[in-house]
Amino acid sequence: MFSRKIGFEDDSITPYALRHTHTSYLLSKSIPIEYISKRLGHGNISITLEIHSHLLEVYKKEQGQRVRE
Predict the structure, then answer these.
(1) Residue ranges per domain, the chain?
(2) Residue 7 has what pLDDT?
(3) Sign of the C-alpha dihedral, residues 58, 64, 67, 69?
């Protein structure tokens, strides 16, 4: 399995999980979703938004708080 090849005993760590974690990290660093979409190789931004919209909800709340401050 992939997990064992990269040194993890747990088979739940998949390339998809690492990709999703990478996307979460980029969003947490305020990297624009347009850039992330291109980096992931998505054909258009709506694919990225559909897959990762739950991550954007947290981002929206954080941004709203920053505006209020």
Answers:
(1) 2-68
(2) 63
(3) negative
In whole angstroms, give the CA distance from residue 64 to residue 69.
9
CB-CB contact of 41 with 31 (8 Å): no
The pTM of the whole model exceeds 0.85: no
Token pair listed for 27? 């969003």
The residue whose two tokens read 């005993």 is 9
Alpha carbons within 13 A on the beta-carbon side of 55: 20
Please, is 51 exposed, middle or buried when counting C-beta atoms within 10 Å of its C-beta (0-12, 13-18, 19+)?
middle
pLDDT above 60: residue 4: no
Angle at 56 between CA 52 and CA 59, to 5 degrees: 145
Encode 35-51 in three state secondary structure: HHHHHHCCCCHHHHHHH
